[in-house]
Write a structure and sequence with these properties.
This protein is α/β, with parallel strands linked by helices. The chain has 5 helices and 5 strands, in the order H-E-E-H-E-H-E-H-E-H. It has one domain: Udp-n-acetylmuramoylalanyl-d-glutamate--2,6- Diaminopimelate Ligase, Chain: A, domain 1, CATH 3.40.1390. The chain has a 5-stranded mixed β-sheet with strand order 1-5-4-3-2, with helices on both faces. About 35% of the residues are buried.
Length: about 110
């Protein structure tokens, strides 16, 4: 699936996006608020859904080879988070959707013909 389609489905707002982010392929979605769970997640090119707003989540996403991060749950994005995403070249978005609803919406995209 293409990141742009997923971002549109979640009505996510860009916090930081590198050039050509619309063409990034996403292989899977992983939702977690625990850094330890993210570190043991499998599969590169995954989209990370989280309500964590610390720079560590962006660094962890880079370590596991995530395609992008979407912050969910109406969280406020701290100013330094965009800088961390820029350093790691990880697309970062914000969506007011709950994590559960985001997973359901993205799951329905997978089922669509």
């Amino acid at each position: 699936m293409i990141l742009k389609q997923m971002v549109d489905k979640l009505e996510a707002i860009p916090v930081y996006v590198p050039e050509n982010w619309e063409e990034i392929q996403v292989g899977s979605v992983f939702a977690s608020d625990l850094i330890s769970d993210i570190l043991v997640s499998e599969g590169e090119e995954q989209l990370l859904l989280t309500s964590l707003t610390t720079p560590q989540v962006v660094r962890t996403a880079a370590i596991v080879g995530a395609a992008a991060v979407i912050i969910v749950h109406r969280k406020q994005i701290p100013p330094g988070l965009a800088g961390s995403a820029r350093i790691e070249e990880i697309p970062l978005f914000y969506s007011s959707t709950s994590k559960y609803d985001a997973c359901v919406r993205l799951g329905k995209m997978e089922d669509a013909p």
